[in-house]
UniProtKB/TrEMBL annotation:
This is Polyketide cyclase/dehydrase. The lineage of its organism: Bacteria, Bacillati, Actinomycetota, Thermoleophilia, Solirubrobacterales. It comes from the Bacteria. Pfam families: Polyketide_cyc2. It comes from Conexibacter woesei (strain DSM 14684 / CCUG 47730 / CIP 108061 / JCM 11494 / NBRC 100937 / ID131577). InterPro entries: Polyketide_cyclase/dehydratase (IPR019587), START-like_dom_sf (IPR023393).
Length: 160
């Protein structure tokens, strides 16, 4: 699937946003409208190596389980790498890029890529669905960080 990109401007310092994103237990707060049944893959949910497992609510998807692990965490970038689909054979990557913007704002860009190995996997991918859900998750992230509202639950090792 071609990469899906969404951008939002958040009135918070870049370091604060990077710290929030580097804790994968926070991710269900803004992604739980399309990713459900979250579980941590290790006890420590912060920093490089922290990971989660979840189920995608993609319509007509029999093999909706996926996971990702943080592989790079800096004040400028947070990178997630994972797998999804049948037998976890599809590689995925999410990249959060944080840049300072005028007026004390931070430009937050999220880029999601998925690489289906087989024709059936590539046919299952719905770029439009991912684009809509990604854009909504960034709007929710903005409202959480700026106004402290729309907060969902934090994920734990054994689920919620």
């Amino acid at each position: 699937m071609e990469p899906v990109t969404a951008t939002v401007f958040i009135a918070r310092p870049r370091e604060e946003i990077a710290e929030y994103l580097s804790d994968v237990a926070n991710h269900p707060e803004f992604k739980d409208h399309f990713l459900v049944d979250w579980h941590l893959t290790r006890e420590d949910s912060v920093g490089r190596g922290a990971g989660v497992r979840f189920r995608e609510k993609l319509p007509l998807n029999r093999f909706g389980w996926g996971d990702y692990t943080l592989v790079e965490v800096t004040p400028f970038r947070v990178v997630e790498r994972g797998r999804s689909g049948k037998f976890n054979r599809n590689r995925t990557m999410g990249t959060w890029t944080l840049a300072e913007a005028p007026g004390g704002m931070t430009r937050v860009e999220y880029r999601y890529e998925s690489e289906g190995n087989m024709l059936s996997d590539r046919m299952r991918e719905s770029r439009g669905w991912w684009k809509r859900k990604t854009a909504k998750s960034l709007r929710r992230l903005q409202s959480i960080l700026e106004e402290n509202r729309d907060r969902g639950g934090r994920v734990t090792v054994a689920g919620r």
